[in-house]
């Protein structure tokens, strides 16, 4: 196992080729020693007889065909695991960087994970209250769900994620054990610091494991970061029984790294230069959210991604949306109107919502109210564009009411303060306040019984 | 099992063996020390290429590759229904018993349970001439479905021995057949069939019977025939999966094969949970008793995803051969096409559009060609209907998978992002969806639902088209300036959209609706329109009509009239008449 090979046969971007190796396995991790001083890791991505093509996780800048020693490790990429990972900070491939010393590792696991058997999954049904009306009422977060935030550069996705962390009843209410796994891929230092401060201020820092690959860290390394984070999350959830919330930011940087490696391999791209396997690759991570039947913990994921050019049809948000169980979409126009959180509710969706709301969990009218808010809000834009053509005064009375409804929705319902934490009942009551702006005949998504109960004609 | 080669190179799911080998095309092979299942995909003098159905991590050059001599096949026999398999028919429950919550590779499992004893009733006699397809025994496979074991397609001869009725496993001989060449062959409850070969039938014919789904926009507007093909394209979150769940639950097929191809794990769990609890109104048993699930979720190996479509189709054809109407839900065919693309990319084949291989169109065509209403060799009639979800990149229907699918299916249920955003479900766009079966099915609707069903359908579609062009105008200038008859078209369009097209999957009454009620709903909407028209021709303005609650009332019929109380429609007719008289009297 410990044969060392001196020299390489080619270096091309993050890829190196070495010939004459014995016993190299596909997907095996190799260790490089450059000049005998600098250590790097790599992974065998193709192997032909005694020739291995290796993807180097760190920068290949100092490597030469002569100065590099290569050693096979005999295993694929593994993460050592310890219960005291909570409260600690690691680099993008899982080495502690907080100066608090080594951990007492109890086990080691392949970071790629194995697929969960669908017959052993438990369908997620538990509502997590975030205190944010747009989310709780319209795109309800469910424990064990994967619900990404689709954002754009400069939009307040970090603030929103932080507010969810601060306000969500991750387990506090029922005294259940919870934890947060935070993975940063290519984000700036101030973003990582912002999250650390948030965790400290809300008193959960002892429950947080951070994996940081920052903007100036090696690009290829960030291909490992989310996998390492999810391996830790699964350990904490399924071995230790905790409810784990995983925040992955920014998935766009991850995908760009994948594209970079793919293009240096000269693979045939599909759309916008991204490799054809981007979908499978993202799925192998997003699908690691969930609940295992008969086990106490859970893994909930909130991946954050910035949509290039705010384009929701770009392959990164597009493929993500095809895998995740909904999405929360932030919108520049709303942000421009100073609405916080600037959630565009129409393209936002929570697919697991239906199982976790209603009489048993939130309130009987929840689904109907949500459907109605969506349906009515979708008419606001028509009224607005009509107003811009024929003038507001010329609008019919109903259209005028839609304008006012849209205004109130954005400022009084979707919009809220950074520290405003609304209960679900407050949120639903507020929703009825909104619906009262409209004439009753317009509320065709709510059945007569509920309308009779909650809609007061005289208001 | 013989070693015929050693691994030379590994690139993800693709493994190469160097030189000229004795492997056969499409042969099933075992790859490496862990004996992972693979399939030979190309052969030439220089090398043999194999796609591996499991994760190849850790595999090394120099490891052996074993031959099996037969193509990648599925086992067909009792035990398929009320069960869930991966893309190559390995039972997921058995895998869970072996390896817990995660699927580890190299699981050595039998495809169907070989220990279970099934009660068998033999239906042939000694001396009887048999051909491929002849039914030799009946087994109550589930509470709902009587399994009919058949002579495998390529065998012909005379029965020389049968067993007594009793309990047998799928590997015990049930009858012995002397073939035409005098050799004797044992026939068991189970048989093997290569997944990429369609099972043969006597003849194919045009279907004139709809696959009734209980979904109004399908049954009334864009129906599919039994043995037909349909595509459901739509961007993420537009409702493809929900629509397939609904059809799987409520359609009048005998058997459902649900293929989760590269989609979410939780959705399969949901189907398993839901279908086990839901009662099939036709049989009174749980829906799982007529269902088989193929689950190759997005995080499972990509080569098995490619195979899952064929596995599911072969299972469906097998039940068709018994004389059943089978419906396949394939969610999503785009993931299958992408698996083709991924494998093709690894093979460095010349790509055509957007990286997809040039053979994409022909693969899609051969898949949908396996649908059809058939006359089987045993003279039963059976059908395979295929309903495939398509997940276009960026929600853009001009991409290669949608376009090529459109060429080979006869129903197109296009889902619309804008409709989904306003939560108009099912988000089927009524303007660009179509069904080419309407003509073929017209007589059936006339005879079995109502004489004017097809006519009414046409009128409803016309109103929707008129409404849509009027709405383009309204968006620019508002509705006030329109003449009253056009305002009426808009109002009736609204009633159709909200009261008829929108259908709430979560409402106990509305989730599935019988054809008779669908017909009556169209009738009553058209009746309302007729009376309103007459009022308008008498000079009554639309604003006056809209003050009445009759429109709201008609919209609510879907919730207010239970599916088994269709006599209530008479009352609605009276209500419309009263509304008419009231307006006439008050304003004459
Ligand atoms: N008929 C319906 N009735 C009520 N809600 C629906 C209906 N169809 C879809 N929905 C809602 O839309 C959501 C998304 O639907 P679905 O999962 O079927 O989308 P999809 O097209 O399969 O998306 P993807 O391509 O990402 O898998 C559902 O979770 C549900 O909330
Ligand atoms: Mg789907």
Strand proportion of chain A, as a percent range, falls in 15-25%
Number of helices of chain A: 13
Largest sheet of chain B: 10 strands, mixed
Q: CATH class of the largest domain in chain A, anyone?
A: Alpha Beta
Radius of gyration of chain B: 27 Å
- Domains of chain B, number: 4
Largest sheet of chain A, described in full?
A: 8 strands, mixed
CATH architecture annotation of the largest domain in chain B: 3-Layer(aba) Sandwich
Number of strands of chain B: 26
The largest contact between protein chains, plus residue counts on each side, is: A-B, 83 and 77 residues
Structural class of chain B: alpha+beta
At the first level of CATH, the class of the largest domain in chain B is Alpha Beta
User: What's the CATH topology label of the largest domain in chain A?
Assistant: Rossmann fold
Distance between the termini of chain A: 79 Å
Shape of chain A: elongated
